[in-house]
Design brief:
Layout lengths: L1 E3 L11 H11 L7 H11 L3 H4 E6 L2 E3 L1 H4 E6 L2 E6 L4 H4 L18 E2 L2 E2 L3 E2 L7 E2 L12 E5 L6 E4 L6 E3 L10 H4 L1 E3 L27
Parallel strand pairs: 6-9
Antiparallel strand pairs: 1-11, 2-3, 2-10, 4-5, 7-8, 12-13
Helix pairs in contact: 1-2
Family: Belongs to the amiloride-sensitive sodium channel (TC 1.A.6) family.
Subcellular location: Membrane
Membrane topology: Multi-pass membrane protein
Amino acid sequence: MVILANNNQHQPGTQLRYRLPISCCDHMQYEPSAQEQGIELLKRSQSCERMLLKCNFGGVEYNCTELFHPVILDEGLCCTFNSLDQVYKFTNMSMKFNYNKTYPPNVKPVDWSLENGYQNPLPKYYSPMKAVGSGQTLGLNIILNVEKDEYYCSSGNSVGFKVALDNPEEEPNIPESALLLAPGLKSSIRIIPTHQEADRKLRNLSRN
């Protein structure tokens, strides 16, 4: 989690806008509600628009806000790519914070699972998208803006980015699975999938 200085012009007092950053950065004994924390982190953290300067996927250049969406995870505000829509990911939407996830015109969110794949038939434009190929040319390429001079505080003692590669159905576990990217350098990440299948008869076994 990173809170930016220019988004943190607070005055001492009891207001949430003061108590939340102090709680996050100086470990003040204040615990805001999930709704309060989500709203304030969206306001005070680096936005996806500022973080992502250029995005290319499948050999096509996109507006980064068409591919990435903000979400609150265990380390604060993150920008997710090709993740399932909340409607398909969560079973009880009333218990989740609403991030107002938007899509480009004509793009429709669809369901997907590792076992069943996509629904049939698919619309012309949909999310999450299929990969059209492998390698640097057809993979995901992004340019990130670290805004180091704007840091007010961070959940770690470093400057840069954390990247987690996960199943679109899952919520990323940033502290345990994220890779660290240093600012000012070019980084390449290659994914080598491993496919494993279990016998369908296992579904008939009793859980007791």
